[in-house]
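=== Structure Prediction Worksheet ===
Name of assembly: unnamed complex
Input type: mixed (protein and possibly other molecules)
Chain count: two
Listed entries:
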Amino acid sequence: MAASQVGSSLKRVGGVERVTGTQQYAADIRLDNVLHVKLVHLDCARAKIMAIDKSAASRVAGVRFIMTAADLPQPMPRCGPAYSDRPVLAVGETKYFGEPVAAVAAETKDAAEEAAALVCVEYEELPAVLTIEAALDPASPLVQDPAIRPNDPLAGSNILKAWAFDRGEAGNMSADCVIENDYTFPMVTHFAIEPHVFLAAPDPNGVIIWTPIQHPYVLQRVVASALEWPVSKVRIIAPDPGGGFGGKGWPKFEPLVAFLALKTGRPVRLVLTLEETFQAVRRASAHIHIKTGFALDGRIAFQDIAADFLIGAYADVGPRVVSKGSYAACGPYRTPQARIRARALLSHTTPSTAFRGFGTPQASWAVESQLNEAAEKLGIDRAEIRRRNLPAKGEAFIPNDTPADGDWVQALNSATEAIGWEKPLGKNRGRGVSLGLKSSSTASASFAIVRLHFDGSASVLSATSDMGQGARTVFTQIAAGELGIDPGRITIVMGDTAVVPFDSSTSASRSTVFMGNAIMKACADIRMQLQKMAAQVFVLAQDAITVGGGLVRTAEKTWTYAEFLGIYFGPPRGEVIGVGSARSEYLRDHPLGGKPVFWEMMCVAAEVEVDPETGMTHVHKLVLVSDIGKALNPRQVEAQDEGAAMMGLGHTLMEHLILDEHGRILNLGALDYRIPTIQDIPLDLYSILIENADGPGPFGAKGAGEGGTLALSAAVGAAVNEAAGVKIRDLPLTPERIWRAVEERRKRVVTSNQISMKEG
Amino acid sequence: MQAEKISITVTVNGERRTIETFPHHTLLEFLRDQLGLTGTKECCSQGECGSCTVLMNGRSVDSCLVLAVEADAGEIVTIEGTGSPGKLSALQAAFAETGAVQCGFCIPGMIMSAGYLLQRNPHPTVEEIKEGLDGNLCRCAGYSLIIQAVKKAAEAGE
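=== Predicted Assembly ===
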């Protein structure tokens, strides 16, 4: 029973709660005596705040406190995971549309909303930096006051940070075939179905914050630093998020609710609307100028990449997104020479943050599309050109870094076979294939505690967040297998920093590998302790005792854990506490601070039909191949792959935030911002898992779950190109864009026919 | 600008209640905040995402678009009224069995819409399932497994 736990599709832990509406999400938590909070923001991105008049708002019955910058410590506390640049409330000037300038706390939601509308802010709109071009224009205003980045040589520009990653000889880059293009990737938003929620309450030990955060320990650190308290005084309780996708990874308004709770001495509750959530999180848009050199046989000679990412008004985790995405921008290919220049550009827009794929979807759109153009130019099949450039397993394809850790050709071949790559195509149909490679977690750490209770049941304490990826289920499988007990006797405890030990983050598809390994070690620790304990009570040598399959054995006799613990502890009872950790080393000299523990590699093949009259794209067939090492729960992995692919279809075909000249989001909310619905799923969808047990996680597992976003755009883009005969290098490939491109091509064909007729 | 409360009588999940509510409060707010039925979820508040779907007088509605007072004298069924952890409905069991649930936030609304579909059309085709659920957004995008779950429930005879 136990050994077969891993690799089986155990039903989702928490599934029954989720289908019955009994799962408690953050907004479902009721706190007694709570004050409802509503934020006040302005109708433009950038404005000078002249005065805030709270008088009318204060007169609303039930209003208890209206916080503005003046009510906070001076100078204003600024926070952030990498840069301490985000103020608790806007001070002096707003930097993006939706940045709160005040927060109303009232007895009811109605009163808070009414009063928030009555907070009178006198402001003067200022010109805003909203595009990459504007951010780079020396005549543009500075988004951030240089004083908040002292000693930073770039502080006098809107470049928050710039990176240079080179491979091979950085000198003259030349090749037989050189292709040079510009690609753009849109600003998109996470649109988790659960909007963001922030609750806080004063506590005898400090403050408690409830929020569906992916990284409780990052939040604890950031809030503690804002309050200038020790971390032990800040308790984070993180209910399972209703979707995260990176958007719930990094602190947003938690410092604000902490200050509000402490100022009012009461619990406070801030539930963002979906519109406010759009204003709080997004993916960085990007412009990538790329020059790729190829030999005549299709081998890549060089990549010369200049990637500009438009991050928002505050750094959040934006710089890390840019550096990680750009470092591995050349994809899973041998690239003897590379010059990669990347910049994170500040703008008066929503701070961009982590979003499934973490910088890779942007780079992959450009690099993979270049391969398609080269294939066409050189007369090589688009799958074959990739095959010729893929490293063998074990090959160091990025110098001094983690070698290729999977059979990537096998993944590519599986994808082309499943899609029927060689089969004739119908009218208006096209196919594409693309690979995506993401650097997984670099330097990070996970700690786990497993408690074997006196009755032989167990609790696993882990700070991973289960946001839908199914960590509770996989951890249950691991612990059940390692301890040899029934999954139903295991409880996974998550999300309370007063209870669960440290974990770096729930990000980068790292939890199965890092936390999984930590739980494995904690279970091994329990088995070892049981062995020692048994040797002691039975007065035997340790090697005369075996522990496994839920039993303690000697040559003569066998006890269940409950029986043995009963003998060992007697009536007072006790428990066995196993501790485990998994860490990857911080490397000061590595460009990312550490080598990726594994590469997340995904291959996507797509077959689409484009209606030339409407520009509509229908994805008929989608094949997802994930190089996963070992799927601990195959059904969950497939569901993650499909979900990531659908998310990729969103930014490939339909999603983009549109800003007006004031920096306001025009398509603010579900009515005007379109995400994939059930009608958008491909008619045929195949998820293939490559399982060669070659990963660093439990049983050879690698991380998974971001895959579909890494490679989808270029596969669909190439398919659209083949179906409609148009090359579009700007995402999303909306019907309008495709239709216009088709029309333009028609006109060109007509014109050239007319010319040839005249000449004829 | 405090509005006067209005007394309404509603049958919610089979239980008849008379409660005072504000005329501007939505059915969603009434269910979640006044009755504590938090299984019904709030996302877009614009009738686009389907998270707040409930049955009102036998028809599915977005409870964010209905005022509580409009439910006066009516009958409401929420996710809590369709089954419980110890006694799952065929649809709930099918969703849990097939792995159609990821983060789960859209699932109560999804199950209410699917129930309404099966009530009108006990054996829907895949196209009909898609049509029945295209007003329910799932950002985890477990749509294929959701379709499988609805098919399974239909086969089970709900």
